[in-house]
Structures are given as structure tokens and as C-alpha cells.
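Good morning,

Both structures are done.
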Amino acid sequence: MTDQHEPMIHEDDLPGHESSLDPKPDWEPRYAGSGRLAGKVALITGADSGIGRAVAALYAREGADVAILYLCEHDDAAKTVEIVEQEGRRAIAIAGDVGDKAFCDEAVAKVIDAFGRLDILVNNAGEQHPDQDITDISEEQLRRTFQTNIFGMFFLTQAARPHLRAGAAIINCTSVTMYQGSKELLDYSSTKGAITAFTRSLSENLVGEGIRVNGVAPGPIWTPLNPCGGASEEKLAHFGEATPMGRPGQPNEVAPSFLFLACEDASYMSGQVLHPNGGIIVNG
């Protein structure tokens, strides 16, 4: 099931089609499910492709029904719906802009109408725009990056909050750039710092209600974000080689972190960040 809401226009090719990437990212879960999310409903932003698709696939394998929020890549979203349904679970896909508060309110209402509950919120959608110099970052780009990457998390969490009960989980996607910095991703890295602070603060705010809030900080992962987000051919040719493992990660190497934080295995964890990043040592 797909519902469409007209998105804001981006200045580049974002978010990009996963179907056009070569090689294709690996999203398939690596092991049989064990029912760790049986009976749960998850809302995942940016779930049409990349990390979001891999999380949707793994959640479905573990028994969850999945609401897929995405911007405008309808073919990729339809594929993710198919993946979830092939695991025997229900899926809906809702197109629109998480930077638009009204859309977030509408999207959560549609999830509740479709599934009757919401147990897991995965704030994964994001965008980046590389720039060599801070003076090259336009006001429009700066506002847009913050609107998608951090405002969208606030808007969706606000919309979801009345429906989240004790035992619910929120998982926010931050980045290794929050810890290391990135000289070409000044605005993007800044939003990721805000996301980490948001995660820790929201955990303090909700932990007394039995709602856990954690984050995942991926390293360089092969998704549409980099090739469609303005990365140079030279950078793409050596993408991920600077990690201790010497390669980029795949979405299905990140998804298990989101599963762990969503299920009862992580019942004593809140306000924390996991780091699937190829062996990069970070502090905090």
C-alpha cells in the first residue's frame, strides 16, 4: 500500500534511486528470524533504500509490521514493501517530506489507522551536500539539511509520542561524522551532533515512562546517500578505504544494531549510541 504526499524539491539528485546503484547495496538479513519483534509495529523513515530498507527487512523477518516513510523514490519504496510482505508481514509506504510537520502528523495518523498501534520509531531519513568551503553553503541548503536531519526527528517524535507506551523504542540515526567531524560535510555533521544530543536528552525525558531512546552512528555505508548526494568520482572510488577494515559497510551490517536497540535484548540500554563503522575508534 502506497500513499503519496507531494515533497519539497531538492537542489540535487537526492535522495537517489537504489535501483540505479552498481553494485547494489546488500540489504538481505543474514540469519533466520526468532520472533524478537513479534506483534510490534515499526515506523521507519528513509526506508525505501539503504540502511532504512535493510532495517525494514530485518524487522519484518523478526515479526514486525512496517510503515515505510520516504521522500519520492516510489520504485524503491515499492520494492521495500514487497520485501516486507515476502517475510509474511504487513507494510504501508507513505511518501512525503519529514521536514514538513503537517506531513509527519498525517503519516503517524495513517500508521495508527492501518495498524492500530506504534511500538518502534526509527528516525533514519537524512540528506547531505558536500562543500569544500563554508562560504559555499547557501542559507537554503543549511536550512534544508537541518530541516530534514533534525527537525524531522522532532516532528515525527512529537507526532508519535501520544501513541508510544511503556516498552516502546526510538532509534535515531546519527553518524561517525558527529564524532570525527568531516571537512566537506559541515552542515551534515552539525546535524548529526544535534541528533546525538537529542537522543541523549530525549532518553532522559522518556526513560521514566518506560520508553527507551538510543542511536546508531554508522560509518561509511554503501547507500544512495553518497553517490547521489554530490560525492566526487574520486571520493566514491576510494569510499570506505580509510576505515581500519579498509572497505565500506553494507546496510545489512548496520541493521542488526537497529534490531538490538528495538527489542528486549536492549532492555537495560537507553541514551546510548552503537557504532557499526568498520573499526573506527571514537570517543563518547
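Second structure follows.
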Amino acid sequence: MDTSQSLPNAPAPHILVVDDDRDIRDLLAKFLERHGLRVTAVRDSREARRALPHGHFQLIVLDVMMPGESGLDFARWLRSAASGYAQIGLIMLTAMGEETDRIIGLELGADDYLPKPFNPRELLARMRAVLRRAVELPKQAGESPLRQLRFGGWTLEPSRRRLISPDNVEVPVTGGEYDLLIALVERANKVLTRDMLLDLLRGRQAGPFDRAIDVAISRLRRKLEDNGRHAQLIKTVRGGGYVLAAEVEKL
């Protein structure tokens, strides 16, 4: 594989493509390798599970509609703490018009989605955005490598992208969940609209029915044990957006 276009002194990110369509697998593998990425392409969830322990993958591109275990079921397992791979970036490929699959995918922790048929260049741009969040944000946040942010009994460790509960237990969060949470924490007690959050997260342009932020907020509330109907930490501002209603202590 040609990885000559990767950053000097840094290994090229390793991508796992999971799609039962051989033409799509071959097209993506060749296209992504031309752009400096390493690619392993498999045809279903079973082969993906076999590849995961050996690949050191940074990102998975996953088709929703596959024979056997569906992409949604595989994503549910991947994002569970038991899998050991909950931190890997995840972009899901969905059938055109299947908004339900996209919403479920986001609820399961996908970092982004793209409907088929898709432009490989658009997919590459979205992949780079997810990879940037995983690689660059810890550097930006880590003026001091030991800095911590404490709010409502919870602790964020930006240098290691970890969320620690009031009981001192690490709570697994996806890359997208972490980025949303730190955007809220660093602007505590300020109302952030959905558009502002999308801009801060460098995400996709939101369509009129895009629920990505709402779904991600719902997932964060569950992780923070913050009941959605009577949320105390992340509050909904009617007609506005969301606000982290807590004092933040920087350690």
C-alpha cells in the first residue's frame, strides 16, 4: 500500500472499510490509499471482528445494510465497553432516504454518516474531520498535560480525552461525544445553538431535519446520568439550544 502521502514521522491512519459490496470496497481502498491512508477492507461484521484485534484502526467506515449481522448491530457492539474498541472513529453509510437508520446510527455513537450513493471525496473530507478530532484536539486543549476540568462532580482530562465519574470511574465516550462535551464545558453557562455547536465541532452542514446535535446531547445526558426530562447539567433552552449549567473548575 502506498502511504507516501502520510505525515512525515507519523504512521498513516489505518481505516477499516466494512461493506458487502465488492465494488465499493475496491473503489474505496484504492481511493483512500492514493490519499495516504492504510486500508483494510472486509465484507461483513464477522470479518471485521476478526480484523479488529490486529489492525490498530483509527476509523471504521461501516455499511448499515449487510447480510448477517447488520451494521447497526455491529455499531452497537463496537460502542459497548465490552468490545474494547469504543474509542475508534465511526462513519456509517446508509441508504438514500433512510433517515431512521441515520438517527439510530447517531444514537449508537456514530461520529458521522453519509447516504449512498456518495462522492468518495466527500467521504474523505468527513473522515479527515473525524481523524482531526482524535489527533489534534488533545494538543489544543493540553497547554498543561495534567490539566483537568471539573464540573458537577465529573472530571474531564483533555490530555487523555477521558471522562471520570464522581465515583472515580472512567466512563467510555466516543470521539464525537467527547468533543461535544468539551465544547459545552469550555463555554459553561453560555447558551450554544445547534448551528454554533456544529461549527465548533467542524461537522457537516445541518439540513432542516438534521438531529445530530439533539441525538448527541441525549447520549451525553445518559452518560452523565443526567435525566433528560429533568436535566440538571445539560439544559435545553427553548428556541435556543443547550447550556452546561455548572461551574467549571480548572485544575
